[in-house]
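Narrative progress, year one. The postdoctoral researcher (J.K.) led the effort to move from monomer predictions toward full complexes, under supervision of the PI. The following entry was the first complex the group processed end to end, covering 1462 residues in total.
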Amino acid sequence: MASNKKYWQSVEELKENSSIVETLRNNEFVEEIPTDEFLGNKEALSSSATSRRDFLKYVGFSTAAASLAACEGPVIKSIPYVVQPEEIIPGVADYYATTMADGFDFANIVVKTREGRPIKVENNYLAGGKIRPNARVYASVLSLYDSMRLKEPMVKGKPASWEEVDAEVKKSLDQAAASGGQVVLLTGTLASPATEKLIAEFGARYANFKHVIYDAVSSSAALDAFQSVYGERALADYDFSKSDLIVSVGADILGDWQGGGCDTGYAEGRIPKNGKMSKHIQMEANMSLSGANADKRIPMTVTEQKYALVELYNAITGSSVSTPAFAAKAEVAKAAQQLKSAGSRGVVVTGLDDTDAQLLVLAINNALQSAAFNPAGARLVRKGDAKAVAQLINDMRAGSVHTLITSGVNPMYTLADSAAFADGLKKVKMSVAFTMKEDETATLTTIAAAAPHYLESWGDVSIAKGYYSIIQPTIRPLFKTRQLQDSLLAWMGNSQSFYDYLKATAPAYAAGKTWNQLVHDGVAVAETIAPAVANGADFSGAASKLAQAKKAGELELVLYTKTGMGDGQQANNPWLQEFPDPITRVSWDNYLTVSRADADRLGLENYNVANGGLNGSCVTIEVNGKKLEKVPVIIQPGQAKGTVGLAFGYGRKEAMKPEMVVGVNAYTLYNNFNTVQPAKITKESGDHEFACIQLQKTLMGRGDIIKETTLKDYNTKDAAEWNEVPVVSLDHKEVPAATVDLWESFDRTVGHHFNLSVDLNACTGCGACVIACHAENNVPVVGKSEVRRSRDMHWLRIDRYYSSEDTFAGDVETKEAANGLFDSIETFREMEDPAENPQVAFQPVFCQHCNHAPCETVCPVAATSHGRQGQNHMAYNRCVGTRYCANNCPYKVRRFNWFLYSKNEEFDYHMNDDLGRMVLNPDVNVRSRGVMEKCSFCIQMTQATILNAKREGRPVRKDEFYTACSEACGSGAMVFGDINNQEDTVAQLQESDRMYHLLEHIGTKPNVFYHVKVRNT
Amino acid sequence: MKKVGNHTSISRIIMFCLAFSLSFSLSVFAQDAAPADAAAAPADAAGADAGAGDPAKGKELFNTLCAACHKLDAKATGPALRNVAEKHDREWLYSWIKNSSAMIKAGDPVAVKLFNENNQAVMTPFPQLSNQDIDNILAYTSQPAEVPTIAPTTGGSPVAADNGINNVLILGALVLVLVVLIVMLALVNKTLKRVAAANGIEVEKPESSVSLWQAYAKNQFLVLVTAILLLLSASYFLYGYLMQIGVDQGYEPIQPIHFSHKIHAGDNGIDCKYCHSSARVSKHSGIPSLNVCMNCHKNIAEFQGDKDSTYVEYSKEFYTAEIQKLYDAVGWDKSTQTYTGKQKPVKWVRIHNLPDFVYFNHAQHVSVAGVECQTCHGPVETFEIMKQHSSLTMGWCINCHRETDVKIEGNAYYEKIHDELAKKYGVTKLTAANMGGTECGKCHY
């Protein structure tokens, strides 16, 4: 029987004759749907010739037509050379040795070109290659194809010809000569004998000529100190492979300290040989790459570092300059004792912008007779003179500078007091800026002279005394550019080209090499260098001055250069913007690094939001009344209490694609060219969204991911103890994991079998391999918001882990000690937080090319399969994008193309313009949307090597195989090769007792192996 | 009873029309055949002033010694030589031909002028020639030029154009005739009907029975079978259609310069890798740059095939004009024998287009495996117009990799790996597939 219950929706219904109820009953919607609004004029609609039916017909027809038309292939044109240059064979790469020198980065390189366009930078492994390329040098090839480059000279903001520029400049120079006004050439460090000679000749024509050298990030203090002792404006060279104990006081020896490039020698000494390896003690404020690699890292404020230097000086030279008490005094004393016993096998370095500190280092190393310390072969890559720059600005403001020519510098961006420079520029009659971009300075100068990229130029560099290298063009100038040197020659009325000038100058430095040989090798080394003669200096005076240093301001702001960005010249380079910082793993930003204690005190925080993105508080930094607002904060483990860090190179605005305008300009706080500034910090409202690619900070005691041991254990104990073989249970018995298998193994003894070895001792985390991989494999740039969503495409990532206890070994103990459910939960929760001064470990991770790959078994379309040479293949055209493989990969190395990243307006990076696409490697496919990709072990390179051997009818030579990353690894941490060839280095490395596989217990049998990290504690 | 069957009459009309049209076309071809060549044979009237030379021997000598740099009627490296005997003194010519550089050194004004006029190209001295030989050569060069025969230039196009006009006329006439016939038939039919009506003869109408179509429609079995057949054939053709998408087998585009592989690789027997030299070392076979063409075409300014040669598809003028296109592109001035510097690259239409995701390397196949070009590209030496011979599908590639033995002999790279693999598979020969040539990653990266 039906129920008589009455259901009601609102009280209104209970009222009889309620008009509302009546209305609701009859109308489907409570309110009239505003159809008129979206249908518009009813009359117009009905009178329209296109009925709804017609509309559908059109849609149907056009869809059908479009899909039919898509079946037709396009007509592709092929245009051969009219006259083919002899050295170019389409499809075969040419290599040219050259040198990068942009005033900040210097490196000896080989450039790979295809069909006449440079596509990749590689190492110049010839003897005489002084500095190996870093990540920025690898990325510099993309800066050549920067669409924001200045394409022709501009006079007063209008495009002009070089003839017009010459006429204007010559007129101005004549006027200057007549009136006696100053002619000033402002350049970065050139380190170029030929250019310096040319400038001297140019300057001799004017009574009042000055050549001012200006380094954006100055080493002026170190230069002053070296000059006062050795009488030359240069920097001492250090070879850390000759040292058993390295004590660094605030010097980022693996970063850009003194022009960089020290990591090769450093890494050499870090690989344990015959039971010995170097020991590295780092005293620093910011967590730097060097600190992360150090055996012992002592966080100190800059003031404390000065005291520490005095203590070291006391211990080594037997002086007794008393210092105030400071926290780490005991540890410094211990280090001083070790240094003393190391004697000539010890070395001390410092990166403090303080002449006294630099003087002490020279004194200490001389007293030690340190083998690593080499003042004779001094480096010439930093010559900037802070005082001369300050003087120039004063002269400009006084109106005494008539003509100013700048080259390769951007003072309007890099000067702390750029307003003063702008003011002075107004009083200069004629200003010419040689620049690749219409940057902050070039927009203000009278003439913006379009300068070529170094890959389009001739030149020479003397990186250090006795080392000479050539810069040769690898492509014709893309735009109407002219080098400074050619322009100077033209203005001198010299019809010679700089090429001829260089050719005439070079033999004096070529160490007997012919011009052709010199250009071929790119480098020449002089056999003998004059020994350096040390003059006395007031060392004890310097020490006592240092001992009286006082901390100024609430916090010490320590400015530094990031591995990815350097001084910011390449800020419009998407590879570098997307390059994650080795320490913080944040890309697309700079930020204030703050210690946990200071952050708690100021109420600053970092937290992850639901999609995994990292957010951080924002602060305002105030230095001597100058404010920098909206600076995001990263809480940095290991940051010395009372200090904060901020990187240069960000916050550029001119000649940048909008996507690249990120970060804040730290140069505005770089007063007096001192990287240490007294700062006051106030919290701002609002949070900043970071693009951080690593959320997990600690290893959680999983000592089998990065295996570690101490040098003592390594030398005394059995390998099984510190390189434990993982075991699994088979028939209730523990057996080594590698012996248990679900599958039958293939026979891999025939032919090549590729393996890649990564030595965790030699890896400094510098990231050169990441960029090299980018360049070789056409890895797309996805942009900040995609990186934030963990959709980064790097095939190679360098994981960075902090220890939760003081050491990683401590983590393992803590984990083992956890007992019971609640204790475990609590312990693990605590272990997520890194320690105040943690140990740091880097681990490059890429596709492990498992012989029993979990990804291969789950692909429904067999798009990923195994090759008999050990490579895990990925057929992009076969992939349908189920992403099962990525889910099943225990190493999380597969990358999915969520979007089409080339020729897509939404991703306006290099692959969106014709110019930027010139950097693409034609041997590697550009992947489309919806496709999975990953490291291929550079199969295009191994295939090319095999083919070369086959064509020449010979077996593959020893160590002939290499990948982009192994080639780029200047520290020798990555070695690639064929383990079936017993001669190959990798075959021997595989036999090492330090060898282990990542997650060996899951039985994937990877073709990548790691070497246990040994710490010399 | 009389039955009037219309269809027979229609077929008759068609037959008639066909016969009618054939009679026209026959006469047309007869006209074509009529003007046979019978061109004037080269007049063998040796010039009186040619001395006692024998032009036949002279021709032989000219072709072996002089033709590399001289032509009779056109400037090549050296000047045109027709009637050169009239331009210079006979003794002067003897000494010039025997040693021209000596004369230039001696400062003979005529010699120096000539030397400068010809880009200062030194002429090879021929001391071995006797005066009689030189007389023979000069006799040959003094022969009057062949009168260009107009008749043999019956190439394809002009005649085809004539035929086209004729055909239009014939078609028009035919249509007219047809229309007249149809009208006549209709009239006859009408008259007959009228006569029949007048005479009271009843024209029988076709019986209305169940039509075949209706019968078929009622038979469900037949309908089902047909439907299945239709579906099957439709899917067969659809599959065939879909499978040929992106497969451009037989693709034969019109190129900016009509380059005949038949003439170059076929008749002249030039090795493929002479022009496509990068096939030996590079992934690309390479379209030859124009300077490679000029290696030969500096001297070959016009098509020199005879009318009895195998290539008669195009006229001599046509081919010569194509060579001129090459000169225009490379900036070669035929008359002064110099490069003008005005270049314009040739935009060839690419025929063999592999997708981006496939890596193919010519050097691997040509240099290492020793595969003949023709294996994939077909008998190119017979192609007047280049086309894609093979399908270039993945199945086609893989099939070859499965069937082709690796060329191991004399290649030290393969020695060790071959021994080991041969032992593993128990065979003496190895296919590319045995070597891993069918793995995805070998071609897709």
